[in-house]
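Bumping my old thread because nobody answered last time. Still need a sequence for this structure:
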C-alpha cells in the first residue's frame, strides 16, 4: 500500500510540477497520506476529497460507521515550526469550514443523524517516518454534534 502511495505522489508531483507551488504540493501529499491513513488504518469510507463550495473547501469527507466526518488536513515539512498545524485552524478557518460543511449537507440533500469535524496533522520528517496525528470530534457544529469519545 505504501508503494502505491509513493507512486501516486510521484505522479502527482510530475503532473503538477509547473502548476502548483511547493507549499501546494506538500499539502496535496499530506492529503493523500491522510486519505490512505483513513482508509487503511481507520477503515473509513472516503466519500470526497477537496470538495469546494464558492471559496470554501473541505479536504476530505468520509464515513466512520454511521457518522459523516468532515476532515481538515494540515501538512508541514520537517523544517517548519512557525505555528503548529492544530493552531493554524483559526476561528476564521473554522467558520469557512462550517459554511462548506453546511453547503455540502444542503447540496447533497443529506440529513445525517450524526456528523463531526476532525483535523489530521501530517508532518513530513527528513530521513524519518512521517507523523500523522488524528484529532477526532473537534467542536465546530452547534447541533447534531457527535459526542462519542475517541482514542
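Sorry it took so long. Here it is:
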Amino acid at each position: 500500500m505504501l508503494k502505491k502511495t509513493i507512486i501516486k505522489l510521484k505522479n502527482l508531483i510530475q503532473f503538477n510540477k509547473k502548476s502548483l507551488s511547493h507549499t501546494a504540493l506538500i499539502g496535496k501529499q499530506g492529503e493523500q497520506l491522510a486519505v490512505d491513513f483513513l482508509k487503511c488504518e481507520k477503515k473509513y469510507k472516503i466519500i470526497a476529497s477537496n470538495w469546494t463550495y464558492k471559496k470554501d473547501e473541505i479536504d476530505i469527507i468520509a464515513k466512520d460507521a454511521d457518522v459523516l466526518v468532515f476532515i481538515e488536513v494540515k501538512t508541514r515539512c520537517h523544517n517548519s515550526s512557525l505555528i503548529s498545524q492544530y493552531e493554524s485552524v483559526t476561528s476564521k478557518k473554522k467558520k469557512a469550514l462550517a459554511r462548506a460543511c453546511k453547503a455540502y449537507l444542503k447540496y447533497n440533500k443529506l440529513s445525517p443523524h450524526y456528523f463531526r469535524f476532525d483535523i489530521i496533522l501530517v508532518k513530513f520528517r527528513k530521513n524519518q517516518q512521517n507523523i500523522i496525528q488524528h484529532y477526532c470530534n473537534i467542536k465546530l457544529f452547534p447541533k447534531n454534534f457527535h459526542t462519542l469519545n475517541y482514542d
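The CA atoms of residues 122 and 132 lie 5 Å apart. Let me know if any region looks off to you.
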